[in-house]
Write a structure and sequence with these properties.
205 residues; alpha/beta; Metallo-beta-lactamase, Chain A; six-stranded mixed sheet; 28% strand
Length: 205
């Protein structure tokens, strides 16, 4: 399995390129900016990026969707419950003095019943609301991509529209903490951790 991390966008979000070494099928998890290094790596490694998987619809995770979708030829997938979040991108960016022509364009809605894979590796879609109503996490080959649900030592904020601390706590305790302790956690910001570590040291225990 190939895994590369890219820190990009105005709030330094993590974007992850994940690929099966044999089939060369790949996904890009979150897309906070047009990142030339991602395009270069895809070309150099000969990858076919099937999907851009969004963990949620906040602007700092979706700003690069339109340009990267076009250049990679990938389908953009998001939870339907976050379609209102992604529809606010243009307006929110305007308040930061960043002007774009249109909101990010997505292709399909996904949820916990969706069946996705790259090569022979299934991608388990986990519904983890709380940071947003439609928050998703992705579990692949012992690796969890948690978006802004779970971080090292803390969890995502819940004071924005669509946020709920009760739902976030449930997502962490009853969904993510059910994964094996040695699961590597790759969050939407900052450094990686493991499920076992967070069960002992996170603010939600």
């Amino acid at each position: 399995m190939i895994l590369k991390q890219y820190i990009a966008g105005p709030i330094e979000a993590n974007n992850y390129l994940l690929a099966d070494e044999i089939s060369k099928e790949a996904v890009l998890i979150d897309c906070s900016e047009r990142v030339q290094q991602i395009l270069d790596d895809v070309k150099e490694l000969g990858l076919n990026v099937k999907y851009i998987l969004l963990t949620h619809g906040h602007f700092d995770h979706v700003m690069g969707v339109n340009s990267m979708k076009e250049e990679l030829g990938a389908k953009v997938l998001i939870n339907e419950k976050d379609k209102d979040q992604i529809s606010m991108t243009k307006t929110i960016l305007n308040t930061f003095g960043i002007f774009v022509d249109k909101n990010p364009v997505y292709d399909e809605f996904i949820d916990g019943n969706s069946e996705l894979a790259i090569g022979n590796f299934p991608i388990k879609v986990l519904e983890t609301p709380g940071h947003t109503e439609g928050g998703l996490s992705y579990y692949v080959d012992g690796k969890l991509f948690s978006g802004d649900t779970l971080f090292k030592h803390y969890v995502g904020r819940t004071d924005l529209p669509g946020g709920s601390y009760e739902k976030l706590e449930n997502s962490v305790k009853n969904v993510l903490y059910k994964l094996p302790d040695d699961t590597q956690v790759f969050p939407g910001h900052n450094e990686m951790t493991t499920i076992g570590y967070e069960k002992k040291h996170n603010e939600i225990i």
